[in-house]
Amino acid sequence: MGPGNHTPISEFLLGFSEEPELQPLIFGLFLSMYLITVLGNLLIILAISSESHLHTPMYFFLSKLSLVDICFISTTIPKMLWNIQTQSKVITYEGCITQMYFFLLFGGLDNFLLCTMAYDHFMAICHTLHYTVIMNPWLSGLLVLVCWIMNVLNSLLHSLKVLQLSFCTDLGIPHFFCALKQVVQLACSDTFLNNIVIYLVTVLWGGVPLTGILYSYSKIVSCIHGMSSTQGKYKAFSTCVSHLSVVSLFYGTILGAYLISAVTHSTGSDSVMYTVLTPMLNPFIYSLRNKDINRTLKRFFWMVDKKGTIIPR
After folding, report:
1. pTM across the whole model
2. Which of 55, 210, 242, 283 could form a disulfide with 40 if both were Cys (CB 3.0 to 4.6 A apart)?
3. Of 75, 59, 8, the residue nearest 291 (C-alpha)
4. Using one digit for the tens of pLDDT, what is the confidence trace for 10-20?
5. Distance, CA of 50 to chain centre
6. pLDDT for 87-96, tens place per residue?
């Protein structure tokens, strides 16, 4: 493109469904999923904070994961709902960059927290006697802080690289949010360096946490195999079931979205799997598969119901 085609821009156009008759259905569906996600994760945080016996590293990391899930889904769905309600597809240039920054930040935090939780399970099962000494509050807080710092820097890097790009007149993004790859593809200027950074960071940010998770669970399987007690094996395995389910859901939906976009023309519907379904299902997985969370939530609802039945005179 010639230099004359490089013009300053003020907005992008987001897209999802072009059929007007589907808009009310999409609005109701995504509003319901958003409210379920926020409420479910808030209940997990409330349950952990209100029960002293849940003040352990495992539940500390789980509460941070629930908080990040709320933030993750809140970077995309409210704007989408607003656009449907106002019959508009517009998102400002600044709003697009901001949304992209926080989407990368909280998506990366999800990934790194799952790896941190796998390490915590490894320490709890394979180094039980030294677990409370090693996984002390200081180390737990430090691990979360490192996750934040790394992903803040990663999101900042991508955002600054996008700010250096020039855009032309074709500003339609075939997603319901500002996805990094789709925004870069709209640029008129050279995107070679941006693509190199995207691919390198994707490999590192996806490969390193996944390798850490696989390594931790290989050690866990080895430790469980070496246990003589069947009850001990069952208890150790049941501790990991919820986390394994969430990890499988997280990476499975990302892989599924990638395969769908690779064989079809992406309209953004494939990204719903990991942007909406994963944060929404995580609380259900932990509340159904984790006995401590399950009991705490039942006690909480029982207390709420008991208070609700008291009729003031």
Report:
1. 0.90
2. 283
3. 59
4. 678 787 666 77
5. 24
6. 888 889 999 9
